[in-house]
Amino acid sequence: MLKNEQGFTLIEMMIVLMIISVLLMIAIPNMVKSNNVVKEKTCESTIHLLQSEVETYAVEHGGTMPNSLTALKEEGYVDKVRCPDAELRLVDGRVMRDVDASQ
Question: How many beta carbons lie within 10 A of that of residue 83, not counting itself?
Fold first, then answer.
């Protein structure tokens, strides 16, 4: 008699699922780490942009620094003044990051 061997055995399926699980356990933490790095780099870039706009504001207003970052937004120098996971503020002409209280 001939055997009908169409399909996978339970052992074969369990091995495949185990391999996929191990790959996911490796990949997910790396993706989370990459996401955090992207947020950090985005915030650094935003701070550099805002700092250059503060200096531009000072040049165009005779050396007077803006009172706050909101002034830059209101006068059209920038579109946004925020970072992920942090608040930004202006202190003595320097853009500073306030770390989120949840950290």
Answer: 20
In whole angstroms, what separates CA 40 from the centre of its chain? 5
pTM of the model: 0.64
Residues sharing a CB contact under 8 Å with residue 8, sequence separation 6 or more, in sequence order: 16
DSSP track, the chain? ------S--HHHHHHHHHHHHHHHHHHHHHHHHHHHHHHHHHHHHHHHHHHHHHHHHHHHTTTPPPSSHHHHHHTTS-S---BTTEEEEEETTEEEEEEPTT-
Task: For residue range 1-35, list pLDDT tens digits in order.
Answer: 556 667 788 999 999 999 999 999 999 988 888 88
